[in-house]
Structure formats: structure tokens, C-alpha cells
Amino acid sequence: MRYDVDVGGRVRQATLARAGDGFAISVDGRSYHVDAVRIDAYTLSLVVDSVSHQSYEITVAPGTGAGQLTVTVNGTPVTVGLNVHRSRSQKDDSDKSASGPQRLAASMPGKIVRVLVKTGDMVRARQPLVVVEAMKMENEMRAGRDGTVAEVHALEGHSVEAGALLLVIQ
Amino acid sequence: MKKILIANRGEIAVRVIRACRDMGLSSVAVYSECDRTALHVRYADQAVPVGPSPPRESYLRIDRLIDAAKKSGADAVHPGYGFLAENPAFASAVRDAGLTFIGPTPHAIETMGSKTAARLAATRAGVPVVPGTADPLGNEVPDDKIQALARTIGYPLLVKAVAGGGGKGMRTVADAAELSSAVRAARSEAGASFGDASVYLERRLTRPRHIEVQLLGDAHGTVTPFVERECSIQRRHQKVVEETPSLAVTPALREAITSAAAAVARSVGYTNAGTVEFLLDEDGRFYFLEMNTRLQVEHPITEMVTGVDLVQWQIRIARGEPLTLDPAALVRPRGHAIECRVYAEDPDNNFLPSPGRILALRPPAGPGVRDDSGVTAGLDVPIFYDPMISKLVAWAEDRPSAIARMRRALDEYLIAGIKTTVPFFRWLLEQPAFQSGTFHTTFLDEILEARNGRPFVEPAPEIEAIAVVAASVLAALPSVATGNGAVPEPAPSPLRPQWRVQARVEGLR
Fold this sequence. Notes:
The complex is a heterodimer of chains A (170) and B (509). Chain A has strands at residues 2-7, 10-19, 22-27, 30-40, 43-48, 54-62, 68-73, 76-81, 102-105, 110-115, 122-123, 128-134, 137-142, 147-152, 159-160, 165-169. Chain A is mainly β. Chain A has 2 domains: 2-81, Glycoprotein, Type 4 Pilin, CATH 3.30.700.30; 102-169, CATH 2.40.50.100. In chain A, strands 1-2-3-4-5-6-7-8 form an 8-stranded antiparallel β-barrel. In chain A, strands 9-16-14-11 form a 4-stranded antiparallel sheet, with no helix packed on it. Chain A has a 4-stranded antiparallel sheet with strand order 13-12-10-15, with no helix packed on it. Chain B has 509 residues and is an alpha+beta fold. Chain B folds into 4 domains: 3-102, Rossmann fold (3-Layer(aba) Sandwich); 131-203, Dna Ligase, domain 1; 209-451, D-amino Acid Aminotransferase, Chain A, domain 1; 461-508, no CATH class. Chain B is 37% helix and 24% strand. Chain B starts with a strand and ends with a helix.
């Protein structure tokens, strides 16, 4: 079997075949012989022969984006996209890159306490834009970069779900 | 006293239930709608629903809590921390219902609950306070008067909620131009959090340490202080790491600061567990900050270095027993203890709460490790409450060993489904200033700012490759969802036949 696995925006080519009790896996040309045991629904134990019998404890949980998984390797979380990679344009909404619109989305369910900007405002990177209250704390959502507020969807006093679009910066 | 109702939830409710069990007492949990499955409900002997999930409709409803205590046959109430723990009306209501309140008197709570009244009490006890305004500044106090008061105190200063705590309703002000908006913000947050929008002004010391003294007072006039706790590692005024003893406290300073703490407590006839907080200035002088009239989140580190069970003593004091602890032993720490407050927060997204379902969880254990947790796998971390999921404590013979042990415990902490602050703690423990102990209350905010958003989680190439390997293995299983972000279901049959797994286990014996 062949997979395209997206790790941090970089697509890794993987192939997998059963080999004895385990799997023969190659990642970008490097081969691993893997003994894999499922511990529970979300936990795997891997012993990788080709890396001198290194033991890895793995947990797997759905990631924040569609098609994403959070694969935690010995305590270090890695976000991977398991779906076949379609195009390079599917970037994270909270992308802090220097160009293109920044779409600020609620990262958790909560209540909009204050909207500190309006359409047309010039904003600087890290400037507070919206204050969202969740879990008793007020949290400032800040601009990822300099720009102009193009759209404001957040309404003071309204509750929002995680992922709700709050505003767009051009 | 036979049965104790715990008017709280989460890890602290579990902690108190454990003390009840240790002492052969029955326990009664209370729970809101979303907490039906919570660990404290499952641990307790009895569990009583007290209303909908928002705290105001359940854990803050005095009438329902008293009703639950009566209905369940409890004869005492432990408030935990947070919620109603420092609400004198609750302590009074418990007493008026003929029940024992496991905590100080309503009078002591009220005096120390008002930060301005507490400052006055400390001054009367001969303990210095940070320069600031003597009286509360309510909504009616006009801007120009606050500006004038601020000029007499000097900048930078802090605007703090009179009824505050935990960094809520607090703002730092660098100059006069920022004052009015800071007062407005602090009042708004204080009003929402404490139902009292009054604030006061206090000079902001530059680079102080936060040192606090745990104490116990019995009903017979004995007050005994414990070795200090160092709580300077704070993010936006919220403690995130605590340790004891403090590297900054000499034996002479320990003697002075624990005596001052006891003097403040005695001046209000304090009973039960409490903590006096101080700021320690760079010049070695200390100032009374406030007194917390409850069990503190970070109480386990004191327990680790003194061997005293503070919750059991809270119960014994409430039963009228005299303190029989050796005061000299309580200020002689055995080894060193560190606590990390593990939060369901995403450190790589500005520490925003990360509520959700815990899919897998294996907390650290083993020598010198204590995990006071309120959650298990399968539980949701609700959005309604504080997102702290556990307090991870490491004890060892000395500070470097305690740090090493904490590092080991953090590496053992296996959790899936939510993001936590564990990766942040791993980074923090490696910081030279943390390891040398040369920090102050704004140290963490400063080094976080200097990181400029650099991620805490930067997987090494090898770890990324293994993640790809693991993802490939998972993809080979038919039950894995690949396109819609759905949870991978448990495999209908194990990855390999069960007998082979068994054979492997047998082979290891």
C-alpha cells in the first residue's frame, strides 16, 4: 500500500507491506521493520527493528483540521494528514504567513466579550482583536500579522462554537 | 463527624474524598449535569446532583449544596478551593444548617477576603504591606480621584480586585495613560468573577518573588506555620509551577517570614488551613500580599516535604482536635518538591483552553511522583470550569534530583484527545534560569514573550518519521477514518491474534 502523509505541510511518501508478524514500511526511501501492537483504541506500541529495536509508545487522536490526526510519539505530538494530498492551497486558517488573508477563527467554544476592531481598521501583528471568554478566563485573540480588517463576523455577547469565523484580515 | 459533603469538583474533590477514606469517614460528592461521569462522583460514597453545568446554577448554589448535605445525611462540608471556598455567606449557611464547615470562621474569611481589610490586618500585626490604597475603589469613585491616588503610589502599579484572587481582575499599569482602561477592565472582570467590581491600587515591585507560607490553626489558639513555598513561576499572574523550599529563603528569612505569617493569622483568630502570601523584594525585604483562607492548589508539595496530610488535619481541626504537630519539624523540609499544574490548554496556541474528550490517559507514577488528577480516559474536559486536569508533583532528596524526576514524570505522561501544557513544562524545565532558580514573578511572561511564538513542540526528524510509520500502520487497518477527522474506532479484532499477544506476554515472564 502507498500513502501520502502530510507532516507540517510536507508530504512524505510511505509504502507498507506485511512482513512476517509485522510490517515493512518505507518513508521517503528509508526502510523500517515494525512490530506493532495495539494497546487500546488510541494507543499503539511500536518496536522498530531497523532503529536498533527502539520502542515507541504512540497515541492517535483526531486532529484539529479535517482529515488530520494527532500522532503522539513518546510524548511528542505530531500532526499528520492521512488523506491523499489534494493541493498545496489547503492551508491552515490560522496561518501566520506574510501573505494572503488571515482568517481568525474561534479556537474553542466560548462567548465573545469584546470586539476591539471594525472593518477597515489597520492592525499590527499581535494586536488584540477579539476577547473570547471560556472557562472563566478572558482570552485575547491576536492578529497573526499586519493588515487591514476586511470582515468582522464576531458579535459581542454572542456564543460561538470552535472553528467559527470571527474576522478576516487582508 | 461521620460523613463529609465536598462542595466542589475535579481533582480537589477527589483529594478530599481520599482523605475521608483514609480516616474512615463517608463522603458525599455533588455534581452538575456535565459532571455526572466525573471521577469525584465515582470515587464518593454518595453523589447528589445540584443543577445545570454553569457554576452559577450548581456549584455556586448555596441553597442546593446545603439541601444536598441535609438530604445525604452529611454532618460536615468541605469547600475545596475556588467556587464557594472563600465565601463567608456559604460558611455561615453551613453553620446555620447545623453542619460543620471545614475551614475558617466566616469572620476570618470575610476579613481576609477583602484585600484592603486584609492589608489593614497585616499592618496591625506589624507585618509590612506593599504600598497602595487603603480603601476599596468602587464604581462610584471617579477617574480623576483614581488618577490622583495613582500619582501618590507611583508607576508601575497594579490594579487589583478587592475581592480578587487567582490573577482575575488584575491589571498592570505602566503609566497614567493606561490607568483608566486598566481600571475599567479590572472592574469588569472582577464584577463578573466575584460579584464585586471594587478595585484597589498597589505599587508594582520590580522582579519580586512570590513566597507563601502554609499554616494550620486550631480552635485552641495554636497557629503553626510550615516551610515556605516558592510560587514565582506565573503566567499572567497565575501560578503554573510551585516548589518548596525556596532557593531564595535563608534559614533566617524562613524564621522571619513564617513568624510574620503566623502573626497575621493570629491577629484574626485564624483556624484551619490557610496561606499567607508575600512578595520578596530583590533586597531581601518581604511584604504581605494577601491571605488565602482555604486549602491551596499547591498544598501537596508541602505535604511531600513535611509528611503532614493537610486535608486530614483540616478535618481534625474542624472536629475540635488540638494541633499536635511539632512546630520545629514543619519548617525543616525533608528533600525538595515541585508541582506542575497540568492544564487542558494548547501552549502552541497562546495557552487557549483545549476542551474535549480524553481518549487515552496513563498518568506518571513510581518513586517520588504524585499525580493529583480529576480525570480519566473517556471523560470530557468541560468548558464550564477551570481547565486544570491534574497536579503533577515530584519529590526527591534535593532540587536537581526533583527536577530530573519531574522531567521523567512529564515524559511518562501519556494523554490523547486534548492538548495539554505538558510540552510547555518540558521546555520550562530546561531553561537555565529555572534550573538555577534565579527567577521572579514576571520571569515566565518575559521568556515566553521572547520566544515570539516559537512552537513548544518541534518534533525531531526521527520522531516525524516514526509518526509517519505509525500513521501508515493505522491506515492499514480498515477502521481508521482517513478523510473526515473522525475518531479511529477500536479495531474489531486485535492487530494480531490474541494468542500471539498472550504468547509474547508469557515469553517475558
